[in-house]
Every structure is written in C-alpha cells, then in structure tokens.
Amino acid sequence: MSDHDATDPAPTAGVTAANAPATATADATAARERAVVNTWGQLLQAARITAAEQDLDLRYLAILDRPGDEPGSSESLGRLESEVYPGEVGDRLVAIKRSAIERGRPQQGRVDVAVDGRVRSFEVTATPRHDEHGRT
C-alpha cells in the first residue's frame, strides 16, 4: 500500500518545481546548439565548403556537405580516404592529412579534381583534434 492519501495528487517523476529552471536551461541550451549547427550547416552549404570528421586511419566518420555533391556524400561514410579518392588525388589528400596528424597542427594544400569533365581545385585544410593531454 502507498503511504500517500488517495486525495493527494499522485507522485510524479521528471520536472519538479526544484528542477524546472535547470530543465528549462538545458532545453534552451540544446535548442541553441541545434540552431547553431543548422546555421553553420547552411553557411557551409552556401559557401560550397565540405567539413568532415575522420579517424586516425582516415576513415570518414561524419560529413557535412551539399546534398548530392561529391566529394563527401553519405556514400563516403565508413570508407577510407583512399577508397573515396583513389589514385593521385587520394595520395595528395592522405599526404596533407597524415602531415597534420604527425605534426599535431593544421596543414593546408590544394587538390585538383576532375568533376563532370572539368578540373576543380579544392583548398584543403586538415586540422587534427587533440585529447585533454594534447595527444592527436
């Protein structure tokens, strides 16, 4: 048997008067973060910039790109750099990114890619991420 009176409102879980401000703040923070991600996504799309996250083996983990544009389509997720860009282009991209990983600081380079019968030049910046101990 419960020790609350049948005339009392049933106990509730979740938001209470004590945690309502914290919950509202967390909800507002999450909404702001979603808005920032959406805004950055729109800016990257308008600027024709691709942003990608790769592991130390250069396997694509996440890609933010214009829908349907190569490079960086969702078909690239889980694939290695050399699988997405075989040959000379892939070799150049791997060299830029490996240099960033080895040096522990951003590296830049230019890559020319044939797209629809035209050569397009891409400025590439590879920026390694570091853990709390400064390791790449």
Classify the oligomer. single chain
- The helix tally amounts to 3
Overall geometry: globular
* Unreliable residue stretches: 1-13
Q: Helix/strand/pairing class, anyone?
A: alpha+beta
Radius of gyration: 23 Å
Number of strands: 4
Note the gap between the termini: 58 Å
Largest pleated sheet: 2 strands, antiparallel
Instruction: Give the strand order, joined by hyphens, for the main sheet.
Output: 1-2
Amount of beta strand: 15-25%
Instruction: State the helical fraction.
Output: 25-40%
Average pLDDT number: 79
Output the helix-strand order: HEEHHEE
In short:
The chain is of the alpha+beta class and 136 residues long. It contains three helices and four strands; from the N terminus they run αββααββ.
Question: How do the strands and helices of this protein lay out in sequence?
Answer:
Elements: H1 20-46, E1 51-54, E2 60-64, H2 81-84, H3 88-103, E3 107-115, E4 118-126
How would you describe what is shown here?
The protein has 136 residues and is α+β, with helices and mostly antiparallel strands. Helices cover 35% and strands 20% of the residues. It has 3 helices and 4 strands; from the N terminus they run αββααββ. The strands form 2 sheets. It has a two-stranded antiparallel ribbon with strand order 1-2. A two-stranded antiparallel sheet has the order 3-4. The radius of gyration is 23 Å and the shape is globular. The N and C termini lie far apart (58 Å). Residues 1-13 have low confidence and may be disordered.
